[in-house]
């Protein structure tokens, strides 16, 4: 009976965020067996009793912080839509609990539930329905009208939302006059106009062609940040997941196989299923300098003697070293050639031999930005933090290995 529960006891690796942000959604051991009577067999491990049918969603637990962009990813049939619909009570859970803004949703009365659906949460589907005979404005105002907002106010707020999504002036048009991408923008405008804090989105961009899709992703990210919305976004496309998600939850056969940031999933896929997904990803745009950097082999201080530094570089088989101040900021670079000159001239001051022959990037720089910078100097590319301190280096070989995904990638 535990066949559906072969994961460790807590599949979402508690505390993986360490972030103390307020919680928007808390899902605990949520299970759905289609055809099974709801709210029976609350105990874990009894979730696969629905006439032998495997659960569509099996014992899933996770927490979404307020303002987080949370992505649910997995192949078709992995239970993403079912899970998303349970968040909105479009699908009744077989067991488990769901809390939204600290309130147990199963305890809400009908009126409260309606309010939750109309005000707090808005759902955008892949092929979401626009009313063909109503104007774009009326379509965008739909959620507000449902809530009883009067026509004038609803129209005004709809117009604002249309402007935000780049559809200013289209309010009087009919949906049939819009392109597919524009119609999907109306869906976003409707979600925005509704004022809902939580947006549930089920593959909303899957039907769009790639360029429009990218625009919509950018627009959504911007809206989510500017308007502080919490987004739960379902997709089967890992590139989309990586672009959008603060965190990504990977599902398979109704279960959570991994939950983490894009870089975490990419650098440490939990199993072959995830690794398979990850193999398609453009690693150079997802991985950052910070995820692949190494410890610098040699660094030096200005008060050292040239031969000391030259010895250390020689021992490490390097071609040069970064010279750092006492806070770890880069003062310059000493190449072996310069150091050899210094020794030759019996010079005691390193400062006279410093050069600026190096390149540096912030730890958040995507690998694609590093390609033109590595291998050009005697020292490897420097990675610096916000304060300009040297936190690591990226040798050319490390960059190539990371992009090619050979097992040279460091774990730390
Ligand atoms: N209304 C339903 N009745 C019975 N089975 C369903 C229903 N909806 C989904 N399922 C089944 O649940 C599983 C998960 O489906 P779904 O949540 O739609 O996955 P996804 O969105 O990841 O493609 C599938 O096996 C699907 O056939
Ligand atoms: Mg689906």
Automatic annotation (TrEMBL):
| Ranges where the ABC transporter domain occurs | 25-278
One short Pfam name that applies is ABC_tran
Q: Which PROSITE patterns match?
A: ABC_TRANSPORTER_1 (PS00211), ABC_TRANSPORTER_2 (PS50893), CBS (PS51371)
Ordered alphabetically, the record's keywords are: Amino-acid transport, ATP-binding, CBS domain, Nucleotide-binding, Transport
- Report the GO molecular function annotations: ATP binding; ATP hydrolysis activity
Sorted alphabetically, the Gene Ontology cellular component annotations on this record are: membrane
Q: Which InterPro entries match?
A: AAA+_ATPase, ABC_osmolyte_uptake_ATP-bind, ABC_transporter-like_ATP-bd, ABC_transporter-like_CS, CBS_dom, CBS_dom_sf, Gly-betaine_transp_ATP-bd, P-loop_NTPase
Using the record's annotation, list all stretches that form the CBS domain.
293-350
Q: Name one GO biological process term.
A: amino acid transport
- State the family named in the UniProt similarity comment for this chain: Belongs to the ABC transporter superfamily.
Protein name (Swiss-Prot/TrEMBL): Glycine betaine/proline transport system ATP-binding protein
- Organism name: Quadrisphaera granulorum
